[in-house]
Amino acid sequence: MSDLDIIAQIDEKIHQLPVEFLSEVDDYVNSLLQEYRDTSQIAKKRSEQPLIGMWQDREDMQDVESYVRQLRKPRY
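Structure (tokenized):
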């Protein structure tokens, strides 16, 4: 199902609602938009942190599982 199909279905359902409920639909859509904006801002801020990706160039950490296995090996 395409995005346009989903939008058309939502639009059709909204048109079936009594007028009294339209303000609630609007409030809900606005809260979803705000949540999306907040989440996007948080993700953007996190990706700008200098710690993100600081080990990406380390060849010994390319295979995380074997790296951790090697770290734990002396314990067993």
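The mean pLDDT is 86. The helical segments are 3-16, 22-47, 64-72.
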